[in-house]
Amino acid sequence: MVTPTGDAGIYARESTYLDRFVQFGEAGDRIISVSFPTQPDADSSDDHSLFDRIEAYLGGAEDNFEDVTVGLTVPTDQRNVLEAVDQIPYGEEGSVEQVVMMTQGLGSDEQEDRKQVREALAANPVPLLIPDHRVRDGPSGAPPEVEQKLRSVEGL
Questions:
Q1: What are the residue boundaries of the structural domains of the chain, listed by start?
Q2: How far apart are CA 90 and CA 74, in angstroms?
Q3: Buried (b) or exposed (e) across 77-98, using 16+ Cβ within 10 A?
């Protein structure tokens, strides 16, 4: 279980597996952003319990991070898509078309719905925690090289 600090802050720790940093922003008890910079923000801290879980996950430990509270600050249509993506289990993958079918309010206009799913995936503010890397034919909020490594961790 992740113990939130209760404070707002930026946290970053280097990952040798990803060959870059894992950085996230926390506001209160919610993770509001995840990124993978080559250099962390100067005012970031590496003291957060979530890093131990991320490190274990990158080492092959199964984790869906389902108990991590995410604060999505995206439009409702993107939120619906990302909530659907969050239901794809560890080690499984889906397609953009499957996400369309899983998302409340989508399914009536194939081309527009696929576009909406792709846009939501690309704008995902918390890749890894909302596992857009499990959508095999969609973009990710993570850089392509990170997305591929996340897929590899899960055998995708």
A1: 76-142
A2: 24
A3: bbebbbbbbbebebeebbebbb
pLDDT digits (tens, 9 = 90+) for 101-143: 999 888 777 899 999 999 999 999 999 999 999 999 999 999 9
CATH class for the region spanning 76-142: mainly alpha
Parallel, antiparallel or unpaired: strands 30-35 and 9-15: unpaired
Whether the full predicted model's pTM is greater than 0.85, yes or no, is yes
What's the rounded Cα separation, in Å, for the pair 148 and 152? 6
Q: Which DSSP symbol is given to 4?
A: -
Contact predicate 145/139, CB 8 Å: no
Q: Which residues have C-beta within 8 Å of that of residue 92, sequence separation ≥ 6?
A: 134
Residues in the chain, overall count: 156
